[in-house]
Every structure is written in C-alpha cells, then in structure tokens.
TrEMBL record:
Catalysis: reaction(s): tRNA(Pro) + L-proline + ATP = L-prolyl-tRNA(Pro) + AMP + diphosphate
Protein name according to UniProt: Proline--tRNA ligase
Domain of life per record: Bacteria
Example GO molecular function: proline-tRNA ligase activity
Species of origin: Candidatus Wildermuthbacteria bacterium RIFCSPHIGHO2_02_FULL_45_25
Domain Aminoacyl-transfer RNA synthetases class-II family profile, first and last residues per copy: 38-316
Family matches, as PROSITE patterns: AA_TRNA_LIGASE_II
Keyword line: Aminoacyl-tRNA synthetase, ATP-binding, Ligase, Nucleotide-binding, Protein biosynthesis
E.C. numbers: 6.1.1.15
InterPro entries on file: aa-tRNA-synt_IIb, aa-tRNA-synth_II, aa-tRNA-synth_II/BPL/LPL, Anticodon-bd, Anticodon-bd_dom_sf, Pro-tRNA-ligase_IIa, Pro-tRNA_synthetase, ProRS_anticodon_short
Top enzyme category: ligase
Length: 415
RNA sequence: CGGGGCGUGGUGUAACGGCUAACAUGCCUGUUUUGGGUACAGGUGACUCCCGGUUCGAAUCCGGGCGCCCCGACCA
C-alpha cells in the first residue's frame, strides 16, 4: 500500500481527552478514532492488526474443533430472564423498542443464545462433545469506560462455548483451551509477560482462570509465583497468599491486564434451558458446559501497552499491519518504487511511504510512530552503496543491505 | 454510582466581565530545504458545547442540560 493513498494521517499532538498509552499512540498513528466514551472506530491500519489477531485466534479455535458461527448481538429479554440475569447482570445494556415497547439486551456474552441454540441439535451422547465460537462485537454498559481500548462499552470479542457429556470431558477440554490460549499470547508477542492466573469464579463456580499480561496500565493486581510461572488474582488472595501449585508464599505483586478468561460453567446454563442429552443407557443427563473468552480489541491494546515505546507503536511481525515499511527519502524515490513493486510481487505486505511533500525527518518520525517491524530506507545516501538501510523497529542498529539481496534477506527473516 | 477536573478554528493552548477572540500546529499557494517533525512569505479556518439568567456589555459570572477525562466503587 502507498502511504500517500492512506486516508488516515499521523498526528503530532495527543488528544487531550485520552490519557492512556494505548489510546494516545493508536490515535496519533491513525489506527483508531474515538466516537464516544468507550467506543472507537477501527481505521485501516488498526483493522489490519485486528485481522491478524483474529487469524491467530481462529486458527487455534479450529484446532480445538471449534466451529465458527455468528450469533445476534440483539437479544430478547426472555432469555435473560430465564437465566435470572436480566436484573442481576449489572453491565447489561437493556433497552426498549421505541415502537413495540418490547425489551431487548445487547449481548455482553452469549450463553443466553448459544445454550438454546445447541439444544436444537444436541439430543444424544453421540452429539457430544461440541464446541462453537464467534468473533463479534460485544456491548457492556460500563459505568465508567476507560483506558482507551482496554475497557470499552463496545468491543470485539472471541467467545468459545463447549458442550460435554460429563465434567471429566469438560476438564480435559479446558486444559486444551488453556494451551491454545498460551500459544495465542505467545504468537501476538506477549507470551513472556502473560500469566495463567487463578481467580474467583464469579457467578458460576468456585474458581476460574484468567490470563493476565503485566503492564503498568493494568486494572488488576496479581501475585506471581516465579517458579511455577503462574499467578493469583488479588481478589482471591486473603491473609496468607500462597502459590496453589508449589505452596510458596514468595509471590511478587504486579499490575496486569486481563487478556482472557476460561470458565467451567458446568450446568449453570444447561439447567436454565433444560439442555439435556440421552446417555448410553437411555438416561437423561444435563449437558456440561464451558466458556472461554478473549477480547480482541483489548488484546490489541495490551500489546501496545506492553511493547510501545517513547517513539510510538512497536508491533511483533505476527500482528503488524504491514511486514515492511519502505521509506523513500530524497533522491531515492525511483529506486524505492522499484523495490516496493518487487516486494509486492512476492506477495509481501509492504507499506511504501511515497509521500513527496514530507521532509525526511517527518517520514522517519512517522515510521517510528507506525511501528512496522522492518524499515527500509532508500535515499541518495544509501544508493551510493547501491543499498537500502535495514532497521528493525525497537532496535538502535541499522545496516546497509544491497538492493539485489533484499528479497532474499526478507524471505530469510520470515523463516 | 460517589468525588475531582475540563468543554474556545481540524488538533493543542491563550485571553482581568470591556477593542475585530490570540498563539502554535494542521491545511492551501509560492519559494526553499531534504537522514530525525526545514525556513520564509501569503492565505484558509471559531455563532467560544447547548438552553436560560445576571449585566450597558459574557468565552469569562449564575442555573440547568449534554459531553469528555481522572480517582474510587463496580466488573465474565
């Protein structure tokens, strides 16, 4: 893509109504735009990142035999009354139709839809296990939206629901999901600072598990066991905090942001909707359920919080909007164009800063702000060596690479 | 939901109750410059969030509303 055609622009100044690092950098770089408190438009560069994250998550969900569906965000009140959550779910968006006076919810989660949905198809033990997932916009009536994309009123979430014949099967599946989640966090570049965390179970069970990523902007406080590489959420740490695995009390307190959670719902919802199956002996039994969520927009923001620096965004290759940022400076435009065409024809994701009016300094600053992992500068100076300057975002050093070796080197880099 | 702060060109800010609402940035024209947000000149751009009140006079004071941020509470 040519940068001169991109409808978004970078901005020098930070919006005064945003304080969080993720919102400031993403808005300045033109990845997102705020529409309302806690509600953002995702612009082309941000959309590309989101799609990359989506791809990583989808691949893992499919490996868990998850079948992708899309359920409605608009949901009937009756289903929420059936689970007794119409009155009690405090961030539920509830509203009345202007014309019919019927009441609706905007889905913050989808147990109320997915459970009756699967009931139409599950009748026998032969129909189990099953897993479905979706990647969809969710709504929560937050009393206070905050911290950019970290806590919004509208956000994009992947939710997976699993259906099992018994608790053992659920437990085994739950472990598989845990591994998938760990691969997801590693793939988006925050694996080394994301901890499997023991947390309270909320509405459904005694405990649940979260994945928490260490960042200053985190809303949660967790206690890390360095030996086991797991953590405990503050909410379940009472007087004597200890690691549930090795029982040590040497725990390190840290701020973290919750980037995913997994719950064993068991029969909490199958009871409400009478979701039963017939077992091998002809007996009726309740289906056992699990649910597993990852907020994509929040995950994106968490990566920014964790990796962004003074100069701007820093993307891992796996989710960067582009793999390569070609910057043509004075005297290098013609060659830059050639290299761009060549890399494009190799099917590589390339952003080419072909803007003519901008000064060199402005282009280099913008490249840092946009955060694309590999920057190739082509200018009069590099062309004296018949080369391009190769620089990795986030690293100080750069090197000259001969123009005829670039494709080779890019392919080598991508492994 | 409790507390605090704030709404002024696209953006960031300034302006004692008193001249034509100022500065920077952006944008447009031209010249210039070209490896870390070049320089100069000219130009464009604001019913000062909305409604009402006080006053000879309101961006400024008062009341109400709407919106935004931060702290806390809450949080699948």
């Amino acid at each position: 893509m040519r940068q001169s055609k991109l409808f978004t622009k970078t901005s020098h100044s930070v919006p005064k109504d945003e304080e969080s690092k993720n919102a400031q950098l993403l808005i300045r770089a033109g990845y997102i735009q705020k529409e309302l408190a806690g509600v953002y438009s995702i612009l082309p560069l941000g959309f590309r990142v989101l799609k990359k994250i989506e791809g990583i998550i989808r691949k893992e969900m499919e490996s868990l035999d998850g079948q992708e569906i899309l359920m409605p965000a608009l949901q009937p009140k009756t289903n929420w009354e059936q689970t007794n959550r119409w009155e009690t779910y405090d961030t539920l968006f509830r509203f009345e139709s202007f014309y019919t006076k019927s009441e609706y919810a905007l889905g913050p989660t989808h147990e109320e839809i997915v459970t009756p949905l699967l009931k139409r198809f599950i009748a026998s033990y032969k129909d189990l296990p099953r897993a479905v997932f979706q990647i969809q916009t969710k709504f929560r009536d937050e009393k206070r939206a905050k911290a950019g994309l970290l806590r919004g009123r509208e956000f994009i979430m992947k939710d997976l629901y699993s259906f099992h014949a018994n608790e053992d099967d659920l437990a085994a599946y739950y472990e598989k999901v845990r591994s998938s989640y760990e691969r997801i966090y590693a793939a988006v570049g925050i694996g080394n600072r994301t901890y499997f965390t023991f947390a309270s179970g909320g509405t459904f069970s005694k405990y649940s598990h979260e994945f928490q990523t260490l960042t200053e902007a985190g809303e949660d406080t967790i206690f890390i066991c360095e030996t086991c590489k797991i953590a405990i959420n503050e909410e379940i740490v009472k007087e004597q905090p200890e690691c549930p695995q090795c029982n040590t009390t040497k725990l390190k307190e840290e701020k973290a942001i919750e980037v995913g959670n997994i719950f064993q719902l068991k029969t909490r919802f199958s009871e409400c909707f009478d979701l039963q199956y017939t077992d091998e002996k002809g007996a009726k039994k309740l289906v056992v359920m699990g649910c597993y969520g990852i907020g994509l927009t929040r995950l994106l923001a968490a990566v920014v919080e964790a990796l962004g620096d003074e100069q701007g965004l820093v993307w891992p290759r796996s989710i960067s909007p582009f793999q390569i940022h070609i910057v043509g400076l004075q005297g290098g435009d013609e060659k830059a164009q050639e290299v761009y065409d060549k890399l494009q024809s190799q099917g590589l994701d390339v952003l080419y800063d072909d803007r003519r009016g901008e000064s060199s300094g402005a282009k280099l600053k913008d490249a840092d702000l946009l955060g694309i992992p590999l920057r190739l500068v082509i200018s009069e100076r590099t062309l004296k060596e018949n080369a391009a300057e190769w620089k990795t975002r986030g690293q100080k050093e750069s090197a000259l690479v001969p123009l005829d070796k670039i494709i080779e080197k890019v392919i080598e880099m991508q492994g």
